[in-house]
């Protein structure tokens, strides 16, 4: 369980997150949506202590994040918009192994996790390649594999589909579906619901640092139009069992 209580975060005079109290139960697939600058990334960076609250607190599994950063980072895995900054080792396999190695796991367990995580993002043949020779989308997939290999209670992905081509998107979406089915909590930060609305248990929307909508996907759909969020339309649903759908771009970006 991730909980924020009265969480406020400021950058100078900008109030990026404004008194947000939110609970994310174990196993929940949550979509966090909202226009650019609404505070989504800032909020999730508090989930594992990458930022410190100006006011309020954040708890993971009942423990304040500030009291046990290691526990929070083990329980909550995070993949950011800019994967370039996240790759730490020279090769694809070594990069994905880095997190599990720091957990002190056996070599056998590390190898199993790395193999599974790379397969999940269709990079299983590429473990020996240099990370410096990868495309942006491939780097993003390595970053996702790195988070998967940690086998966290909650996996938080900030705009995970931005740099991915269609096969990669489908592969990541399929893996998220499996993870959720196996009991992992998933939080996807996005301003584009096309790929993921069908997977979600709940949609939370932010505007100006506040939670302005908290509903199940069907209920949320009707209210998202004013929030610059791209939503699937009913028209594409029939030929699209993955729930991707056609797009009604209700936003301006
Ligand atoms: N490092 C920073 N320094 C100063 N201001 C920041 C910083 N990061 C974000 N902000 C500001 O805080 C507010 C919330 O930004 P945040 O990135 O959390 O929103 P977001 O909803 O994730 O947006 P996006 O979809 O564009 O990533 C915005 O006004 C943004 O300009």
From TrEMBL:
* MF GO annotations: ATP binding; ATP hydrolysis activity; ATPase-coupled transmembrane transporter activity
Return the annotated region ranges for Disordered.
Answer: 233-253
Entry annotated with the keyword ATP-binding: yes
Gene3D superfamilies for the chain: P-loop containing nucleotide triphosphate hydrolases
Q: Which organism is it from?
A: Halogranum gelatinilyticum
Could you tell me what this protein is called? Biotin transport system ATP-binding protein
Localization recorded for this chain is: Cell membrane
What region holds the ABC transporter domain?
A: 2-233
Q: Could you tell me what this protein does?
A: Probably part of an ABC transporter complex. Responsible for energy coupling to the transport system.
Bilayer topology term: Peripheral membrane protein
Instruction: Write down the SMART domains for this protein, in alphabetical order.
Output: AAA (SM00382)
Q: Which Pfam families match?
A: ABC_tran
Alphabetized CDD domains for the sequence: ABC_cobalt_CbiO_domain1
Q: Does the keyword Nucleotide-binding apply?
A: yes
Which keywords does this Swiss-Prot/TrEMBL entry list?
Answer: ATP-binding, Cell membrane, Membrane, Nucleotide-binding, Translocase, Transport
Name the domain of life: Archaea
Q: What SUPFAM superfamilies does the database record attribute to this sequence? A: P-loop containing nucleoside triphosphate hydrolases (SSF52540)
Q: What family does this belong to?
A: Belongs to the ABC transporter superfamily.
């Amino acid at each position: 369980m991730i909980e924020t209580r009265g969480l406020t975060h400021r950058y100078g005079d900008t109030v990026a997150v404004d008194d947000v109290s939110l609970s994310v139960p174990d196993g929940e697939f949550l979509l966090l949506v909202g226009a650019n600058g609404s505070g989504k990334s800032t909020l999730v960076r508090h989930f594992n202590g990458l930022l410190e609250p100006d006011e309020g607190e954040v708890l993971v599994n009942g423990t304040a994040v500030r009291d046990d950063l290691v526990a929070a980072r083990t329980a909550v895995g995070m993949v950011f918009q800019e994967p370039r900054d996240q790759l730490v080792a020279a090769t694809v396999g070594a990069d994905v192994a880095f997190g599990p190695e720091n957990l002190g796991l056996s070599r056998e367990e590390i190898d199993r996790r790395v193999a599974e995580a790379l397969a999940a993002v269709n990079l299983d043949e590429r473990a020996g390649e240099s990370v410096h020779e990868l495309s942006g989308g491939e780097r993003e997939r390595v970053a996702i594999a790195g988070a998967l290999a940690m086998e966290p209670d909650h996996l938080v992905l900030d705009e995970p589909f931005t740099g991915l081509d269609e096969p990669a998107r489908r592969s990541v979406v399929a893996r998220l579906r499996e993870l959720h089915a196996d009991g992992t909590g998933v939080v996807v930060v996005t301003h584009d619901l096309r790929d993921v609305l069908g997977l979600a248990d709940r949609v939370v929307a932010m505007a100006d640092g506040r939670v302005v909508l908290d509903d199940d996907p069907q209920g949320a759909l009707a209210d998202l139009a004013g929030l610059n969020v791209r939503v699937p339309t009913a028209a594409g649903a029939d030929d699209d069992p993955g729930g991707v759908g056609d797009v009604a771009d209700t936003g301006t970006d």
